[in-house]
Amino acid sequence: DQKLDGTVYCKDLATVTVITEDNENGSGVEKVEYYVGDTETDVNSLTDDDWKLLQESVSVTNSGENLIYVKATDKVGNEKIVNSSVIVIYNETAVEEGSQTLNFTKTPAPK
């Protein structure tokens, strides 16, 4: 993997592991979903059917620029959507194969 200016470059596959947690006084994380799109994706136009339930990690194999959007919902229904750095998959290059791990942590909003 190579990383330049926040962009992750991979050959064939990038695996992203997502870790979520709520703040100490929060209601707790109810569910975490993801959507693999590109830099033009409008997450506000995604339907519930577009989001996939996240088990632990997401593998990206689509050639070109990809973004992983993660939607965490707490137990009272609050939602937060974050996205990964740009992940560029070059299936047709001779770059050494590998994977990149990105962690997302939900932190409490400032008071």
Write the SSE topology.
Elements lengths: L1 E3 L2 E4 L3 E4 L11 E9 L14 E2 L3 E4 L3 E11 L4 E5 L3 E3 L22
Parallel strand pairs: 2-9
Antiparallel strand pairs: 1-2, 3-6, 4-5, 4-7, 7-8, 7-9
Structure commentary:
With 111 residues, the chain is mainly beta. It has strands at 2-4, 7-10, 14-17, 29-37, 52-53, 57-60, 64-74, 79-83, 87-89. β1 (2-4) and β2 form a beta hairpin. It is elongated.
Following the backbone from N to C, one meets helices and strands in this order, namely EEEEEEEEE
What's the total helix number?
A: 0
Q: Indicate the radius of gyration in whole angstroms.
A: 15 Å
Number of strands: 9
Mean pLDDT level: 78
Structural class: mainly beta
Question: Can you tag this structure with a few keywords?
Answer:
111 residues; mainly beta; 7-stranded mixed β-sheet; two-stranded antiparallel ribbon; 0% helix
